[in-house]
Amino acid sequence: MTVAVIYILPTLVMYSKGTREPELWPNKKINLGLDLQGGMHLVLEVQTEKAVENAMDAKLFDLKKALRGKQIIPKMVKRIENSSDILVSIPTPESQDMVSTILKADFQDVEITSQKDLAGTTDYILSMIPDEVERIKKSASDQALETIRNRIDEFGVSEPDIRKQGDNRILIQLPGIKDTKNAKELIGKTAVLEFRLVDDDHNVQQAIRSNPPPGTVVLYDMKKNATTGVATKNEPYLISKEVLLTGAFLTDARLSFDSMENKYFVSIDFDRKGAKKFADITGKNIHRRLAIVLDNTVYSAPVIQDKIAGGHARITGNFSPEEGKVLSIALRAGALPAPVKILEERTVGPTLGMDSIKKGLMSMAIGGGIVIIFMIIYYNGAGLIADVALVLNILLMAAGLAMVQATLTLPGIAGFILTIGMAVDANVLIFERIREESRLGQSPAASIAAGFEKATLTILDANVTTLIAALVLFQFGTGPVKGFAVTLSLGIVASLFTSLIVSRMFFDFMISKFDIKKLSI
Amino acid sequence: MQFIKSDMNINFIGFRTVAYILSISLVLISIASLIIHKGPRYGVDFEGGTSIQIKFQNSVNIEDIKKGLAETGIEKSSVQRFGTDTDHEFQIRTPLSFMADSNFTDSLKDRLAKITGVAVIDVSLDMVGPQISQDLRKKALLAMFFALLLIAIYISGRFELKWMMSGLMAAAIGLPVYFITQIDKLSFMNVSAGMPFLILFALVVSIAFCWYLELKFALGAIVALVHDVTITVGIFSLMNIEFTLPIIAALLTIIGYSLNDTIIVYDRIRENTTKSTRANLETVINKSINETLSRTILTSLTTLLVVLALYLFGGGVIHNFAFAMLIGIAVGTYSSIFVASPILLAWENKNK
User: Fold this and answer.
1) I need a labelling partner for A284 at 20 to 30 A (CA). Which of A49, A218, A384, B21 fits?
2) What is the DSSP string of B50-99?
């Protein structure tokens, strides 16, 4: 009897942990997967190579200055397309070791990776040293994670899950989100804000036809189609390449409404340094146009009427309040150090999620019901014991899920249901053995003992193999499949407990309490 | 109540020629179907692309949906009914994986609602880019392969106490396979495309090792499992059912579960061979199978009942999963009796 009590204790502990919650579904303690509660799952890749390219871009201006300082006029200094290498082309006689001297002096993180002598000029290919490349990539990926986290925090999603996956991937789970479109906008927006002057001295159409004059580039603003909402390129502007002021100097960005013009705009505030720069720029360029460029799109290019000293500005454009909100959050949280690409997206609408829960529960009720009835019909009294053990099994699994804070997914519910079938298997094995022993003429007590003893090893073997499969699945599976592996593993462990220990307890109890001549099995 | 009388004595081994023929033809048909269709009908998990599940308020004509899709201009999109008729759910698939416009689902919803005249209750989307689908393919193959290896170790250890040998063999095959799949980024050969062949090759090597090292129980079990998985995947291919990640979960579960039956029989065979060392193996195996028949049929039956409930009431995703389980359990039970045990016999006869 004492042995039985010892066995009951852990059961009670499990019971209270699981069933203290009045309802097990829906329940805060059991985490529901996205496929059950609805929401969005995203896997992003941070294009860290672009961060390296940007870093090299930043060095171009200083490189040219350094070369000129050594009295060398380069034929070409530019970054090679789609690569982070810089090509420096210098007339051969003067170059002799000058490039490496300059690099050693001022650009220790750049090295010459190749050198080619052509007729009269030498072409040097400069690359960033591998250690620095690694550092920039890692820093870009970490910073992207932080920035995205800040943005999502502001967007207001309950219990978002944002984490790094590998070197440059970010996994984002937003449970219960309904506005997936704006969430994706917010996450993917690089949000590089730049203030650059418009070059009104040259003709923009000619620049499009041939080449833009040195130091300028052609950028467009966007026009939105009123019906489809798709934005396309609209008017071209000839914009100076020189960036006078960036979004890094912002302290705040807020969505506001201009009742006179009946439009939304984002009002921005600069910090002290930014405000001073802004005053400088506007003061020196009165009557010129200052373009507000966001992610290489011109938002507006108003004429500077006067020096602006207050450190405030407005970003206007034709945007809806949701877009304006997304923009202001993105500006507040800061620009992404490199663009992000969406590798995987899974969204489940809330109704469909609810559907899945209902269907899962119904299958479980029906499947469980059939099995319970079957056990009683086939194994009579013993079947009843098996059924009680089964119910206990389910409760244990639910408690287990809640305890380890695992996530329940739709395949996870299937795992629950499968366990019902498999838990009963163990009982079948034992009961068949007991029947066999009874047929051989053993007494009830002896049959039960022999039945359990001989069946135990087989049950362990059988369950271990399914457990192996479940563990492998857990290791290699993702998302919903992982949820299945978890419930299956929990189910196997729980069923081992209930079929070997709990059923045995019941049998022993019945035998010791009642004088049973013939087993009801 | 008892289905199976305790004094049954069916000559299962006697049927083994018929069983061999049946098994081999089923496996060949499956392989043929897979080769002809170039694999099962992969879902977006493995092929990449986008799968959209859309639920309407009332019944909708599928032709209207096709018209609406054609208007959006997405090429190569297909529509299929999803779940039961009363669900009013459809699945739209397209190989495109990057919707440049994040407004896509909303505009699709509006357009389809307008064309069919029925309101859309909800939309779900699964978009998998090429890198992720490649990842998932790799993971699926590795999962299946390593599960088999681990099972080989377990069975060899439990039934022949050859833990060390089987462990070493598994490591000798498993570690190189694992490392090769990790370095696909450096290799100039496209390792990920060749992965199925790599795994196939490794599998053949494993079976050869089991043969050579005389791990006969593991050999029987692995052959039976490969037989089960091949036929299940083959049936999926023949019936053109979508093959997704949850199906891999089903396959692994089938592997673990089919082994249950095999172990039950093997256990009894081992018990009976130690009890009566004089009797010839054929009789022992027959006796063992007959003795365990009740158990084998019943355990499969109870699980089948439960899976049937899943199949009928589980809803779209679970429906295919349950179907895989149904096939797997049926074939698995069959293979424990008619494939795994005869292989033991064939081994003994070969040794004589």
Assistant:
1) A218
2) EEEEEEESS---HHHHHHHHHHHT-TT-EEEEES-GGG-EEEEEES----
CATH code of the domain covering residue B304: 1.20.1640.10
The residue segments making up the domain with residue B98 are 49-128
Let me know if residue B8 belongs to a domain.
no
Q: Provide the domain count of chain B.
A: 2
Q: Enter the ipTM.
A: 0.83
pLDDT for residue A61: 78
Report yes or no on B28 lying in a domain.
yes
**The pLDDT value given to residue B17:** 82
Question: What residues of chain A lie within 8 A of the CB of B181, using their CB?
Answer: none
Say how far apart CA A159 and CA A355 lie, in whole Å: 22
Q: How distant is the Cα of B278 from the closest Cα of chain A, in angstroms? A: 23
Q: With the C-alpha atoms ordered A472, A473, A479, A484, is the resulting torsion angle positive or negative? A: negative
CA distance B78 to chain A (A): 19
> Are residues B252 and A469, on separate chains, in Cβ contact within 8 Å?
yes
The per-residue pLDDT for range B252-282, each reduced to its tens digit, is 888 888 887 888 788 788 888 887 777 777 8
Look at A470 and B256 and tell me if their CB atoms are within 8 Å: yes
Domain-located, residue B6: no
Does residue B18 share a domain with residue B55? no
- B297 to chain A, any CB pair closer than 8 A? The answer is no
Cβ–Cβ gap A345/B107 under 8 Å:
no
Of B132, B136, B309, Cβ closest to residue A367: B309
Do B33 and B119 reside in the same domain of the chain? Answer: no
pLDDT tens digit string along B275-320? 777 777 788 888 888 888 877 888 888 888 889 988 888 777 788 8
